[in-house]
Every structure is written in C-alpha cells, then in structure tokens.
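This entry is passed on directly below:
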Amino acid sequence: MPFSPLASPSATIDVLKRHGLATRKRLGQHFLVDDNVVGRILDLAALDDAARVLEIGPGIGTLTWALASRARSVVAVERDERLAPALRELEASCPNVTVVYADALLVEAGRLVGADGSLPGAMVANLPYAVAATVVLRFFEMLESLQSATVMVQAEVADRMAAVPGTKQYGAYTVKLQLLARPTGRFAVSRSCFLPPPRVDSAVVRLDRVSEQPREDIEAACAAADAAFSQRRKTVRNAISSALSVPTTKVVEALVSEDLDPAQRAETFAPEEYVRMGRALRRHGLLP
C-alpha cells in the first residue's frame, strides 16, 4: 500500500489537470512523485500517533496525505491559493489536517494551532527551495514547541545546515541554526523524484532542537556571528570593529575576557563560542 496516493507522476498530473493547475517556478514548486522517498521521509521524521506536525508548502498534498495517516494533527501552510481545490479534497478526507493560506515567512504562531488545539512539535516538509533556509530558522526561533524538523531542501542548503567550523559552508546562518537545532540525519534525493525536476540536487535533513540557551544569549550570539562574518577574510577583531563601528581595542578587550582569540577568523569559532563572544560584547557595551 502506498504511503501517499499522490506520490507518482500519473497521480500528480491527474490532480493538476483536474483542477486546471500548473507548477509556478517563482514559488519553487516541484512536486514529489516518488513514494519510496515519502516513506524515507516518514522514517526519518519518526512520528508517532501523538505527533503534531507543521508542513510548509504542501502543494497538492502529496506528503500531507502520508503525514495525516501517522500524526495526531497536521497544519499545512500554503502560499499559493490556486491549490485550494486540491487541498480541500484532502481536508475533506483527513479531518486532522488544517490548511492555512499564508506566506510562511510572515504567518504568525497563533494561526498554526492544529485540530487538537495545540501548536506543532515537528516540522516535516518538502520546502520551497528559495526560502527553505530562512523558513527553518524562523520556525525554530518562533515556536518553542518545535522539537524537530525533517525537511527537503537544496543539497547546498543542507550542507550549510550541517557545516562544521573551518569549512567554507560554515557561516553566520550555520551558527544561528545550530544554536537552536543540530542535524541528526540526512539522505540524498534524485532530481527524477520531482515533477518538474529541479535544476539542483536535493537532500532531506533532520534537525533536532538542542538545549535552550537564554533568549538574550542567543540574540547576542547571533549579533556576534553577523558581525564576525560580515568580512569573512578578516580577523574577528577587525570584522567586528568595522561592523559595529567600535574601536578595535574594545573588541580585543571583550574577546580576551572570554579567552577567545581576536586574531582568528569567524569560521574557526564553534556555535558555543559565539555564545561566549556575544556575552562578552554585550558585557563590554558593544552590543545593545
């Protein structure tokens, strides 16, 4: 028995034709048409029947069907209201699914309450590639209830999410995300698994929330990372001095107080060291 009745080229084309729909390139729509991949996503997400799931970009509902069969509730956020006829069919068959028509970059947490009255604890989605990185970080920041995300993204974005210090993929985005969640699983997905096929390689990655730091420490660490990576080829003392418009001597004094080497470059510091860096810069009056 298939994980999703829509996870094939013929079923997807039938739904699109029946409702007079077509994919929209500017929204990054690439419908998943491989049921084996749907099954692997479910395995990696490891949902139980109490799971409250958030899906971003359900499209015609291919993955949503599979999620609804596993989870207690599914809230699907879709920007393209042209897909409403297909998604209404899904909602009629799956009473535990709620579709919210909104931009995932703007939707408020209050609109994400599921059929059972609770906020989601897991994100599972084939994300629109143009906004995937921003969406994942935004929802980990916004929803304290969110404990994991199992998401299809561009392979290059998955590399940034999982990057380690000292690599070219490691940057301010990696630091910000890994202060909230760390990668715990990944698998590659062929371009032929989509309709239409994307021009980039894809991967599914799972991220699990890590122990919460105080919000003010996270904010300071993120500000420190932005400043340090603002001029990647410079030492952190010079990059931070330039970004924050403060004297280099003040930056050096702050960093040394936390045993951080001001002569190193931004990509050499681990996320935990950015927490210390942010505290030091704030303590010395260099951050708000």
About this structure: DSSP finds eleven helices and nine strands in the chain. The beta strands are 31-32, 52-56, 73-78, 97-101, 122-126, 148-154, 181-189, 194-195, 202-209. The domain at 9-209 is CATH 3.40.50.150 (Rossmann fold).
